[in-house]
């Protein structure tokens, strides 16, 4: 088995989109930055999101019947930092940054996102220390012309033109 | 629920690394291009790979106790096409392209890859029409200086310098 430092170096090399996953409404809104989001199935249209089982993100999101996955555009590094906790803001205070509304589920939807996927929980598994959520996409908003923010090599990156 | 065309447009916008997932040895070698590979857990170091349950990839890989995930570098679009079946090659014939060796499990490892993660199957689930494999990484090879190939917007992309 490889050691944890080697594993972290490997995972850091893998490019991934940067998302803010949200749930709740009003003063109970919660949002966290996550890069482990992927396409899951087209029948029904669904995505898979995972979190460490003992993380604050998992505690907030694992019991929610709905959530929204907001993929950030290249210019939104600042928002990624806020929802990753790097500015010290917690809970609903994070939503003072960015402009938020809602689609079908009522979960917070970032108006400026490259893409928002509004989801109902379809399946949930606990696998090897991770909480894995599968969300059926019930509504979406997308700007196909924009370029997404990428996290790779331990820093924010953009795609070449 | 959103329709399948809308879903495909959404997933196409999400940037992802491009991998060749391999198994077997000698004349029984099998390899397929996959972009649904992600970090899973650091305890034990593991990755998650998924395939449509009724695909040829799933048939070849779901019963294998070991597999190797080879992340391609920016210059390797041609290899991605070969292992996605776009050149018409099947089975072991695909391995005439690229230089291959093996690490611990014996599964084919691409010498030029940005990263190779040699895995033992840790867990397998059937979720919403997908086969989900969790692989414990038992050996690895990495070139941290290289830039990975990205698939986004229905085409191969590179990261900006």
What topology emerges from the helices and strands here?
Two copies of one chain form a homodimer.
Chain A: H1 4-13, E1 16-17, E2 19-23, E3 30-34, E4 37-42, E5 45-52, H2 56-61, E6 66-71, H3 77-83, E7 100-102, E8 108-110, E9 115-127, E10 130-142, E11 150-152, E12 155-157
Antiparallel strand pairs in A: 1-11, 2-3, 2-6, 4-5, 5-10, 6-9, 7-8, 9-10, 11-12
Kindly summarize this structure in a few lines.
The structure is a homodimer of 161-residue chains. Chain A is mainly beta.
What report would you give on this structure?
- Two copies of one chain form a homodimer.
- With 161 residues, the first copy, chain A, is mainly beta.
- In chain A, 14% of the residues lie in helices and 43% in strands.
- Chain A has three helices and twelve strands; from the N terminus they run αβββββαβαββββββ.
- In chain A, the strands form three sheets. The first copy, chain A, has a seven-stranded antiparallel beta sheet. A three-stranded antiparallel beta sheet of chain A has the order 1-11-12, with no helix packed on it. In chain A, strands 7-8 form a two-stranded antiparallel sheet.
- The longest helix of chain A is centred in the N-terminal third of the chain and has 10 residues, at 4-13.
- The first copy, chain A, is globular, with a radius of gyration of 15 Å.
- The N and C termini of chain A lie far apart (39 Å).
- The relative contact order of chain A is 0.23.
- The model of chain A has no long low-confidence stretch (mean pLDDT 92).
